[in-house]
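Supplementary notes (optional reading)

For those who missed the lab, this is the record we used. Protein: DUF692 domain-containing protein. Length: 274 residues.
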Amino acid sequence: MAETYGVGIGWRPEIAGFVAGLPGLRFAEVVAESVHAHGELPPGLGDLIERGVTVVPHGVRLSLGGAEPVDPQRVRHLAEVAERVRAPLVSEHIAFVRAGGVEAGHLLPLPRSREAVDAVVANVRRTQAELAVPLALEPIAALFDWPDDELSEADFLTEILDRTGAGLLLDVANVYANARNRGTDPLELLDELPLDRVAYVHVAGGAEHDGLYHDTHSHATPQPVLDLVGELCRRHRPPALMLERDGDYPPAAELRAELDAIAHAAGYPEVTAA
């Protein structure tokens, strides 16, 4: 994303009216699998596009980290959705969601091994071959690390990006969650990542349960994540930051306040202002 889009929000049917009413909105993200490749766009999404809001499809089911090749039909759908919404890029996760025909229904972490790097790179290249726009990759939040990890998180990610030329979708909430659950400093990981490759940024809330911090997307963004947004922007200013909210939607006033808090932390104009 060559331009600066400021702060955006994930478009969801449950908050479509709220998103449509944000006067300063220039950027939104839509779950790719929620958009049909043909026929009508979801109500309100087409209006955003016609209004000039940049919409980025975000895939959740490609399983780029799987040992099996990506499903060509799923890749084709992602490419068609990108064309439909006039997207400047698309994004997906460095994770796997299926194996042997069994769907996990969740994003699962990979062992940080060289074999896993090879599998991700092969699937990313297969996907890029069908896309007319660039691809950004998102590292996920994980509640555990595999015992046979060979690479650090930063080295694992950097090698994948270097070998594929993909961009980085950096989720600062994931950085915070992983560091908190490992008992490490999130700023150390931030300083090891290739921030010059950041295409855009996710911001989200979470909650602690049984001693582990879960990246829920259904809680308000906590202050430590907002602080991390500020630290990121001091190191490298990303073109866009996006609030992910996937459930337990609060009243509109609270959502507006959360968006403005992210904008304030990043030094961007408020998305709730015209």
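If you only remember one thing from this example: The radius of gyration is 18 Å.
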